[in-house]
Amino acid sequence: MKSLTLVVMAAGMGSRFGGLKQIEPVGPNGELILDYSIYDAKRYGFTKVVFVIRHDIYDIFKEKIGDRVSKYIPVSYAFQTLDYKIPKDKIPPQRSKMWGTAHAVLAAEDYVDGDFAVINADDFNSFEVYEHFKRFHENSVDEYEYLSVNYPFYVTQSKYGAVKRGVCLVEDGYLTGTLESEIKNESGKLVAYPLDGSSSFPILETQPVTVNLFLFKKSFFEFLNRDWQEFIENGLTDSNEFMLPVVLRKALLNKEIKIKAETSHGTWLGMTYREDVENIKNTIKNMIEKGEYPAKLWD
Description:
Elements: E1 4-9, H1 33-43, E2 48-53, H2 58-69, E3 75-79, H3 101-106, E4 115-120, E5 123-125, H4 127-139, E6 145-152, H5 153-156, E7 163-171, E8 174-186, E9 189-194, E10 201-203, E11 208-216, H6 220-233, H7 244-253, E12 258-263, E13 268-270, H8 276-289
């Protein structure tokens, strides 16, 4: 059986949330969002989990989640550091923020030996997403074909402020590009402000957006390594980031890859703001009452 690894990006600081949202309890027995993600991944055929974290949160992360789930599925830790695959003299002296989502995935390279899915640690995704991953993993034979599982924007918006999403451009079932944007509600209309500084544009509530739910083949590291070197050579600042949508857009433009686009209409819960926690707890409680999850995940 082909290996299928879950790569969890968990190195973010949660500045808008005001703390380590990766370890915020949301289940009736103190379960984290990650408990539900790993539970679903395991039941849909994933064989290993790689947590991409920072060194300074390793102890608490291992205590709060790693030690528990490692009894049920093999777990590895990859560390995203400011000096990972970069000469120290190239790092701006005032830089403290990590280098972004593409750099986080790159940090997992040595722990992946086949197909791998990428998720955010602080997003609750419907089990349906893992069905998409499993089906693609079992059926796709092209090493340079990947999968993006997207949601309609209305599923992912927050009542408490603007959110950052990758706006999907789709043609004949395949992504032609994504545009990482901050999406705001302005006078009842949704407006996307691209992070690359290009012109803002209106979107509909049904617009597919990516929330970093991808299934990649091992070949993806070819593009990550190549573009990371280019990112370094273009000059590093206190704030620029090496982002997955940018790497994907370049490879798509060069026709080096293709990315199948599938839309999930299941539940998605993001923990961007502290106020989001109560809604997540209530939604999970309702799902347990409907029998979608056991009251205690890990017995």
